[in-house]
Specification:
Layout (H helix, E strand, L loop, with lengths): L3 E5 L8 H10 L1 E6 L7 H15 L6 E3 L1 E3 L2 E2 L12 H4 L5 H17 L5 E2 L24 H17 L3 E2 L1 E4 L15 E2 L3 H6 L3 H5 L5 E4 L3 E2 L12 H11 L5 E6 L9 H11 L3 E3 L5 H9 L6 H12 L10 H12 L3
Helix pairs in contact: 1-10, 4-5, 4-12, 9-10
């Protein structure tokens, strides 16, 4: 079965017959889960198993946004709450606490059949910017953010979960929430290279990244990064040096105007490897699938290289001891 270069959502906690046919016919590279898809551990495990059975790939990616703080799809009563990135920066041993927290997140995910986490956030925090990033950021210093984002990525990888660094080349300076409208950033390219872009440059060896639906006026004043050839090729691939698997942010977000099929085509034309669509609406899912190419050539090589990073599965972990250490690190924060 030919894998197509997109990631899809689904509507509920089980697949409808229509969704089963869609998955079987289109064979998306991955499935992404949201709170609407989550009820309890047994149900989530069955959903991930069913997806892989339908597409016929035991290692087919299942993604989730499990950062901690405001952005975590799994939570009580079945799963623990994890602290936001900013809170971890005040822990007693910041780098260790970030890595250990991500390792414990991975431990929760792999038991459910989830093998990709949209973490770490490498966006900088800027005073006065929109709070869509806010406490999801590891700070305002590019080197510190890169160091802590790498720690999170290493924690996930140790747990057998593939990290997704986001939102390349930087969303933190934006004055608007790209879920709701298109943000524009007016800083000069020189300033962007010294600040917003720098954490991603320092993390350019990571296997998978998600784009930002942001216009950088100094680079491409007409198109957001996700669908801008200039930003993808000149900034992400050349200046930042990222040669890993590049996925879009959610194409159903309101930052992107126009038909979703046209935006899907534009993202691939710009140089993205994978299209991400999250809302579970079947008409949009079909349009994304129809405008997504087969996953072959260089994108397929990047996808294989990424999944090879977690092929060995999680490293051994004393979960009780790890939780004890992690809790001690963050208890006074």
């Amino acid at each position: 079965m030919t894998i197509r270069a997109f990631i899809t959502g689904c509507a509920a906690t089980t697949f409808s017959d229509d969704e089963k046919r869609f998955l079987s016919e289109t064979c998306p590279w991955g499935l992404i889960l949201f709170k609407r898809n989550i009820e309890n551990p047994a149900q989530v495990t069955e959903l991930t198993r069913a997806y892989r059975q339908i597409v016929g790939r035991a290692d087919a990616p299942v993604l989730i946004d499990q950062e901690g703080g405001r952005v975590q799809r799994l939570g009580p009563p079945h799963w623990p709450n994890f602290p936001a990135a900013e809170k971890l920066t005040h822990a007693s041993d910041t780098e260790v606490s970030v890595e250990l927290g991500a390792r414990l997140i991975a431990n929760e995910l792999v038991r459910l059949g989830i093998n990709v986490d949209c973490l770490p956030v490498a966006d900088l925090r800027f005073p006065g910017a929109h709070d869509v990033i806010g406490d999801r950021s590891y700070g305002s210093n590019p080197k510190q953010v890169a160091t802590l984002a790498r720690a999170a990525a290493e924690g996930l990888l140790a747990g057998g979960v593939l990290p997704v660094v986001k939102h390349i080349p930087g969303h933190g300076r934006a004055m608007a929430d790209s879920h709701l409208e298109l943000p524009k950033v007016f800083a000069s390219r020189a300033e962007l290279e010294q600040t917003d872009f720098e954490p991603f440059r320092l993390l350019s060896d990571l296997p998978l990244a998600m784009t930002a639906h942001v216009i950088y006026e100094a680079i491409d004043p007409s198109l957001p990064a996700t669908i801008s050839k200039v930003v993808v090729r000149d900034v992400i691939r050349h200046h930042i040096g990222f040669d890993g698997l590049l996925m879009t942010d959610d194409l159903s977000m309101k930052a992107l105007s126009g038909a979703i099929g046209e935006n899907t085509k534009a993202a691939f034309a710009a140089g993205c490897d994978l299209a991400l669509h999250c809302n579970g609406k079947m008409d949009e899912m079909r349009s994304v699938a129809e405008n997504s190419p087969p996953l072959d050539g260089k994108p397929a090589e990047r996808a294989k290289k990424a999944l090879d990073r977690i092929a060995a599965g999680p490293k051994p972990l004393d979960v009780a001891e790890a939780w004890s250490r992690f809790s001690a690190m963050i208890e006074t924060v």
